[in-house]
Structure formats: C-alpha cells, structure tokens
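Lecture notes, unit on protein representations.

Consider one protein chain, 773 amino acids long.
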Amino acid sequence: MNTPYHVISSRPSLCALAVCIAMSGSAFAQEQEQNNNSGLEKIEVTARKIAENLQEVPVAVTSIGEVQLAEKGISVVTEVQQFSPNTTLQRSRGTNSTITAFIRGVGQQDPLWGYEPGVGIYVDDVYIARPQGAVLDLLDVERIEVLRGPQGTLYGKNTIGGAIKYVTKPMVGDTTMNVKATIGSYNQRDLKLTGQVPLIDDKLYFGFGVATLNRDGFGEYLISDLPNQDLENYNKDLTAARATLEWSPTDSLFLKLNWDKTEDDSNAKGGYRLLPSTRTNAPVPDSVFDSYTSMPTYNKVEMEGVNLTASWEVSDELTLKYVFSDREGYSPTNIDFDNTPLRIFDVPAVYEDEQTTHELQANYYGSGFKLVGGLYYYDAESCGTFDAILEVLGLDLRDAGIFPDFTTGFTREVSGCNNGNSVAAYAQGSFDLTDQWSITVGARFTDDEKEAFVRNGTTLSNVYPESGWIPGYVRDAALAFPMVLGVDTDGDGILDAPKSESWSRFTPRIGVEYQMNDDVMFFASYGQGFKSGTFNPRASSDENAANPEIVDSVEVGMKSDWNDVFRANVTVFALEHKDRQYITVEPSEDATVLNQFLGNIGKSESWGIEADLTYVATDDLTFTANIGYIDAEFKEAIINGENRADDFTISNTPELTANIAANYAFSNSMGDWVFNANYYYRGEYGIDELDNLMVQDGYGLVNMGLNWYHPDGAWTAALHVKNLTDEEYLVGGYQFVGVANDGSYIPGLGGDNTLIGYYGDPRTIHLTVGYQF
C-alpha cells in the first residue's frame, strides 16, 4: 500500500546538549583537584520481591530514590521514563491521569475497558489494573523501580513488557510533618502536606498525606458552543490523599493498613488537528495546545482504594506475607475526536471498574539459597459506555431525504462489561552452585477467566451516557440497544447473558549468574510472560475472544562497580512477541461504520542493548548516563489472510533513548546546595500501529535544577526548569483517516479528515519551598 507518512518535525537540541555538558564540565573543573571519592551509592530494590542490593539482582532494573526524585524535580511517575532505557511512560491523549506505558516495544495503547496492559503498575505490591488514574503524582514515595522485560514469574500476567513499582516510605521515629508549596509557570500552585504521628512509640504509627495540584492550561479552547464552559486546555486540577496505619505488635509481626484517593478534575484535553477539516472553515490553531470543541470541557478521573499488608517473621529464615487490596475507579470523560466546533465525531464516555486482589507470599533464606513463592487471586469488574455522536452525518442524511425531517443527529452507542478473575501459584529460587556460580529457576501457573457482553446500536439523535451531561439533556431511560456479544440462554435467538472464555498458562524463568569478584557479576536468563486474552468491547457481532499474547525473552547482562567510582550495568536482550492482539479502529470510506478488528494477528521481534552508567568524579560531582537501543519490527500481521507486516509499526518505541546527567553538590554559609542538569533524547517513533500517519522526529529535552538545604535541616527550596528549549513533541494521537493510492486522504468516521495530535509539556519553571517540623 502506498502510505505517505505525515511527519511532525521538531527542533533537534544539539546546542542544548552542548550547554548541559559545558555546565557540567565547568562544575567538574572546579572539583577535579579534590578527587576524594566517597564511592558509589548502595541501592536497595525489591525487584524479586525481597530486599536486595541492585548490583546483586540479575534483572534489568532502574531505581530512583526519594532524594533523587526531589532533586531532579520529578513530580509524576511519567517523568521516570527519562532515566530508564527503552521505556515510554506518557499521559494518554484525552486526560492527565491515564497512562500509556511501553517497555522494549511492548505495551498497550488503548485504555478502553477490558483491555489489559502490557506493563504492570504496582503501588506497594498492589497491582493497578486500569490505565485510568495510573499517572501517579508522587506523594510520600521512597523510590520508583522500573523492571524491564517480561516479569511473568513473580508478577504474573500483564507484565510482558515489564513493571513499574511505586514504593512508599515506612514510618520510624518521632512526630514529623512536612509541607511543600510550589509556584510556577502557567500559574502552577501546588501544596503537599505529609506527616506521621507515633500513637505508641515504636509500635503504632499514623501517617497521612494530602496534596492539591493546580495549573492553568498550556492552551485554550478557541470555540465552544456550550455555555459556561472552562476553556482552559491542558490544565491541571487534582487532589490526592493517603492515610496509613502501621503496627508492630511484636518484633516479628508487622501490619500496614492504607487508604488512598485521587480525584482529577482537569479538563478533557483537546487535540491539535494535523490536517485541515473538510467540514468547517475554522483555521488550524497557531499553538499545538489550542483546540476547538463541541463537547463539554469537564472531565473526571476518580480512583480510591484500601490495602492491607501483614508480614510475619516466622524465623530468621522464613517470612510470610499477605497483601489484600480493593480498588475502584470512575471516569466520565469527553473526547472530541474531530476537534472542531461541529459535532462531527464526539465521544462522551463513562468508565467504571473495581478490583480485589489477595496475595499470600513466603520468603525463605537458606544456606546458599533463597526462595520466594506464593498464591495470588485477582477479581475485577470493568464496564463502560461510549456514544459516538455523528450529528453532521445525521444532518446530511436528513438533507438527502433518506430520513424524515425530524432527524437531527446520529449516534452509535456501545456499552458493556468485560470482567475477569485470575488465580496463580508461583515460585522462584536462587541457588548457589559454587562460590561464584548460581542459578535462578522460577515458574508461575495462571488460570484466567473472562466474561463479557457488549450492546451496540444506533439512533437518529444525539445521545449522551447520562442525564445532565449537557445543559438540559435528559437521557431516554427506554433507550436500549441489543446485545451483540453474549450468550442465548433460553434459545429465543436473543443474546441475554455474558459470554465467557478461560485460559491457563505456565510461564517459566531460568537464569545463570557468575560472580567474577565482589564487584562484577555476569548473568544470562530466559523468561516468558503473557498478557491476558480479552473480548472486544467494541464488538458489532458475537465474536470470539482474542487469545493471550506471549513474549519470550533472552537477556545477557553485567552488573559491575569499578574502584568504587564507576558503575556499568549493561544488558543485551532479544524478544519474540507472539499472538499480538490488534485492537485499533480501522479507517473506512463509509463514515457510518466503526470497522474494528480484534484478534491475534501475528508476531514481532526485537533485540537491543541497555546501559546504566554512573561515574563518581569527586565527593561532590557525579555523572550518569542511561542509554537504550532497540531494533523492533513486525514479522507477521495476518489480516483477512494477507500478511501486512510492512504496514505495521511498533508504536511508542524509539530506536534510541539516551539520558546524560550531572549532579554537583557544594556548601557555603547559607547551607548545602545541589545543582543538576540532564539532557534526554528520544529518537523517531510512531504513534499508531497500522498505516501510521503520525511520526515524531527525534528530539531532546534539557532540564536543570538547583536545590538548597538550610543548615538546620528544616527548610529546603528548589528551582527547576524543564524543557528549557521549549521543544514541541507528540505523545499521542487519534487517526481516523485513510490514504488512497494517489496519496489523497480518505475521510473517516464523521466524514472528516481526523488526524489529531497531543503534545508533551512546554517549557516550565517552578519553585518549591519545603519546611519540616
């Protein structure tokens, strides 16, 4: 197929890299003569569900601790992508709180209910099943860990790309309270309050955290036909709260009860039209952050959960652990796909989900071996409704005399549930063969079951999910479309019950490690992971579920410290991604058709290399580099009997990612200071999978920060500049347009050329002042 690519250009920041290196070099020159090294930091991780030294873990993992996060000005989990090779963590398209996560070319872009992620998100060992609300603002965090590659043994399904772990701080010591206030660009005004109170000294603690995070929009909605709308675009209006009880009734028993809630009331994000509209003469905005809409601008993402962790040290060798969680989410959202003042292709939607998990875990440290094993249970309900409002089409049909004059709109409504439960048993052990050689063997058996139903139909009017969605709108309670995916239980020819399917999978891991000396370890491993099968939540007929995706991965790596000043952790990997589920809406010349294909279309292959490097130049100056290269492509993509692999792109996956950073500390009579700067580069990448028309050129971001600590330790302040050179770069988009053989565009849903881009943050400056008492 002759597919012209619409390339979105950006300004390469080679000059910015020079600035960053020059400033770092200047700091290095000031301290070069001292060269009295304090050594490399010892980093603790729980990548294998037990506390270990990063340098002893035969897994490709990045860990960023609380101090680093604060000094680099990292405020949301998506910013961690800069410090983890071959990693993509982006805010998804229409909201601030929905995540798009890819690691080594494996992930999940579509956040519709029922679709499973390819990268698992965990908060204190609790799995976050839905991408809505997974862009976590950092509150009371101890560290963030990024595990690259399939984690099918210890973490289970839906970690075929890897896992992101958010670890909160434990409570020790006396009563403390911390307050941080931030002001910055676009009227940013954040306030975070955290603290702990010992109710019984060294036994029972109460901890809390609350945050309100606000910012005006980077742009605005230029036209909206609804009254009393907030016209800010890309704004932020979020509140978050946590409350924790930690109890140690004995030296061997520990219990932690946690509650958290996040409410994001930021506006729905309007996209930037990359093609002029054929149905309205509204000009393309000058700013990529400006947009048009015919939808309400309000949006909401609510997440709330409670979890309990109980840990019992049965003996010096054996620890038992139980983790329970119950979480629910509610997200009414407005997506104006066409981003014009007309109702060409508007989608109001509601997502609702609830999940309950139980995990029983045993950790055993023996003489020459350590073992982790457990049982896991997961139960989830995930439902939703979306209305594809194509009012312009309805008007066209009326004007053509196809329907009576009272026809004023056209809506296709899809609703349903895609529920599932999963039971798993797992074990993984590391065994010393000699003083230098050891092996790691692990396995997990998972039994997965899904049940789903879908209702799908059309009506000759504009329909919204709920009454009051727009001023004066009252939803017709009698509006009910037929079930198109389900089971006919009574033989009357009408589907009236959910359809179900089950899968089971054995996922192994085996590795070998060679400890050459105290500071250098080599490792090699094979691991497998799978992503759950699923039903099509957009189904228009009673189709079968797609089977699970499988990833087989091989890694060879080195963990090394040299003379306590240079750390080099390097991993070479290759993976095969089989039975890939294709879940993107396909363009159509018929604007009334939601052509969508869900199935296991084929496979892709990838290989690459990752390096995490640290050089401690002096007591005060440290350089780091994180570099990732990946060669990823589809090998097979069978649609209607034809292999269309050449038309598919591994989305959200640059061939090259690189980060170079410097950290310089100094002191004077005013206190202690830390300056840091980093340059982050992402190579060219595509946004969509099939016939991708959106390609982001390679670009670079420069970030700088200056942190101050008062001599008495109570006051802190930090000034950060992000995206110093004000790069414009795509992080997501919607493609509802085709390309004819002559290169012209074929209008898609709504009869318009809908090719929409969403962009990363522009240059911002913010000042944070903190006080601890």
